[in-house]
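Thread: "does anyone have the structure for this chain?"

Original post by V.I.:
We have the sequence but no experimental structure in hand. Need at least a predicted one for the grant figures.
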Amino acid sequence: MEDRWITDWEPSTRFPLYTRANAGEVIPEPCSPLGWQLVWEKGAAPGWADGVHRWGSFTPDESDPERPDYVACFGGYFYLNASAIRLVGVRTPGMSAEAMDAAFLGEHPDVPPYVPQVGDERPELTEKIEATMGWIMSATEEPAELAEDRAKMLEIRANRPDLGAASDAELVARARSMSPVIREFFEPYYIYGTASSIGPGILGELCAAIDPSLPGRLISGIGDIDSAPPSHDMWAMSRTINASPTLSEAFDAGLDSIRERLADIEGGADLLADLAEFVAEHGARGPSEWDAASATWEIAPEVVLAAVNAMRHAGDELSPANRHAGAVADREAAEAEARAALAGNDEALATLDMGLRVAKIFVPTRERTKLTEMMAIHEIRLPMYELGRRMVERGAIDEARDVFLLLDAELDAFIASPETWSDTLARRKTDFASLAELQDPFIIHGEVPPLSEWEARTAAIENVSAGEVLAGVPGSPGVITGKARVVTDPGDPRGLEPGEILVAPLTDPSWTPLFVPAAAVVVEVGAPLSHAVIVSREFGVPCVTGVFQAAGRIPDGAIISVDGNSGSVTIVELPAG
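Reply from O.Q.:
Generated one for you, tokens below.
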């Protein structure tokens, strides 16, 4: 393998500091070449630039117009530009570069200190950011553009051509046509994703001193979260299985070939019809969904059935509806507690009202804009998987996903003579797999080390001991003690039982249905307002994110105590043996 990957960018000279912090939640593994180019290079990256220009943090002349400096690809991995994040702090009233470092980078030893440069402070941009913040804090309802974007995306989906009947060239054209749509939808995703932190930030500053759990409780069960409906629909399928002895027997026998077996048993056809309806509606969601190459729920429906299987053992009291109702009740109780604590302080009560209003409007908008974007990415995924399926039949590639090893500029030559690409793609597949075995540097400053100098991912993980406290980030409030169930693949929940604590490597939509039977959730990677954290708050599930190596260090079956208020996980008892 060469010392640079085929989709790597050059680091910015103006903004030279990059980080994997928070980027690992977006794309945890190396991004496929075609996924990087069609989704990110031609869509999301310029859409990111559009978003920061609209927000007011930057002007177009500060960044490369072809490859905007706010993100990058190094060694196949997605990176965020930490220099640009620092400038957001410099230019935002009440913030600083150091505050942004603390929020995004923590105490990592490789982080260089911020050194001010000419042009960092831009009073005219600070004024524009103030205006943006004023718009957010004065909003009284969700802006109309979100519904308009969703309607446009639904029309694109409804008018999707018959991919099975399309020519190879038409499949490629369809995929390419989505890059401008991804750019269009990323701008509001940036705007409303950033805005979603404003309300919780206000509540945190106001209420954390009263009770550290209050800020999280005040946005629990907030409602109207677009990541929640799949769990409700999966729950309905789980109840269908439980109501049928034949279906229950089929799932009790294991998940191997379950879709094939369902076709031949009583009630199976109806359940398969429900599954087909589910993937038609929610098929864009799934693991690592920001990479078009990822096998989301429509590509791999068996992952849906695995989640449904985990849910079917949960009693009705754990239904998403019941869990949401409990979260709503706790939010209402938290609001009453906050009002009682602030009684007599009219200014503080007015701030509380504003924080609650802004959170209610904008916390859901992060998920709303993201889902619209995921649906657009799916319109790249589906035609390319169809092309890949055909090429497997022709013997040009081994599996459909291999088509994503191509670059955009290679697609036309590939469909003209696919067999001539077999050796190239086989070598590239080996090289791409080797990227995942490298330890992606947390910080890159100015120069990207050659891939030959990247360290191998270490398998050495320090064992935990009884009484040890693991530090993380508060995700969803509440304190729960129970048995840890370590799950590394959402398609294989490995016997997650109701009341157990789910310990997982990361948070994305493929994991959130498993939150329903879980008593609490611990994840290695995740931000305070990641979509899975939002869903855990929606269901009233205590959650701690950012627990380093949690899925490797916490033994399966250990008794642990999860404190979603403080962000700590205590090892109460190690499993016998």
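V.I.: this helps a lot. The first helix runs from residue 23 to 26.
O.Q.: and The longest strand covers residues 479-486.
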